[in-house]
Amino acid sequence: MMKDKRKGNQMKKLLLPLLLFLVIGCENNITGIDNRPRYEDVSFTVEEYGLNSWNWWRVNLIVINTSNELFLKPWHIEVDFYKDSTFSTFCQHVRAKVDEGLYPGDTLKVSISTHGRDCLIDEDDYLTCAVTNIQAYK
Questions:
Q1: Would you say the pTM of this structure is higher than 0.90?
Q2: Long-range CB contacts for residues 36-40, cutoff 8 Å, separation at least 24
């Protein structure tokens, strides 16, 4: 009986440091959808954004990997679409999967689109829509 109790105490002594390592040692920059770590050193240029003729929101981006890290495929880009250029009317948060790796210093053109059902706009408001919060995730 005493042997089993010592075995249990030894197990607790081994599990506690392991648990602390897992909780404290994990990355803290997890902020994306599905808790994916964010790529910090990346540059986005918005080439074009708006609605197409089928009322799909779209944004065309130029992405530059400004880090020393290879972006392994697949990786993801997230973007927020707004109904207005003052960012006061949120429409939709969109995530797109990128199936191409991106080497340090390299550039990639990416197009992201989604149905605008959450935020339909009139033809007159077409030029006032905007995108922001563009980020890349592993």
A1: no
A2: 36/76, 36/137, 36/138, 37/137, 37/138, 38/135, 38/136, 38/137, 38/138, 39/65, 39/67, 39/69, 39/71, 39/75, 39/135, 39/136, 39/137, 39/138, 40/67
